[in-house]
Amino acid sequence: MSQIDLLKTLARYNAWANAELYAAVGSLSPGEATKERPTLHKTIVGALNHLLLVDGIWWAHLHGLTHNHTALNETVEPDLARLANARAGMDDRLVGYVDGLTEATAAEQVTFTLIGGNTGSLARALVMVHVFNHNTFHRGFVVETFCQIPAPLPIIDLPVFMRGASGVTATIPHFQAIEWRPA
Questions:
Q1: pTM score
Q2: Pairing relation of β-strands 153-154 and 109-113?
Q3: CATH of 3-170, one of 3.40.50.1480, 3.90.1300.10, 1.20.120.450, 3.60.10.10
């Protein structure tokens, strides 16, 4: 598999996994997506906002644009339905971007300044791998909250995507719901 083919697969997997996750979150009881929990981003919507925010920052870096973000926990969109639409739009842009890469453009260096002020550069291909890996990492935080609710877990692993499955959930009996109340 070429680097470009791998990036195309990862872009499509990322879009699929995000769509499946949003569908699962949308099926939760009212209030569950905004309920505070013992997680990094406090709520499911907070974690989903973080992903869209960071993808937007890297999108700006890839295109040599500036962004106005000063923190990684800014709320891009508090409403889950509008957030889902924005997420789908970003995923479409990421797929289209990867589809337009060649081996030469994938190797080009992208310089960036992180919100904390650190600077660096990465090949476009590595920026995309980072974006997709970052999405996977934080989708894990969201899936973990399903154990706290408790609710059936969305199954969004790469092999599930590769075999064409959709809407797969599972109740994992050895995970117990965690009860937590904000202070």
A1: 0.89
A2: unpaired
A3: 1.20.120.450
Q: What is the DSSP string of 115-130?
A: TTS-EEEEEHHHHHHH
Q: Which residues contact 9 (CB under 8 A, 6 or more apart)?
A: 1
Per-domain residue ranges for the chain?
3-170
Q: Using CB atoms within 10 A of its CB, is residue 98 exposed (0-12), middle (13-18) or buried (19+)?
A: buried
Neighbours of 101 (CB within 10 A): 19
- pLDDT per residue, tens digit, the chain (183 aa), is 899 999 999 999 999 999 999 999 999 999 999 999 988 899 999 999 999 999 999 999 999 998 988 888 888 899 999 999 999 999 999 999 999 999 999 999 999 999 989 999 999 999 999 999 999 999 999 999 998 899 988 999 998 888 887 777 665 544 444 343 444
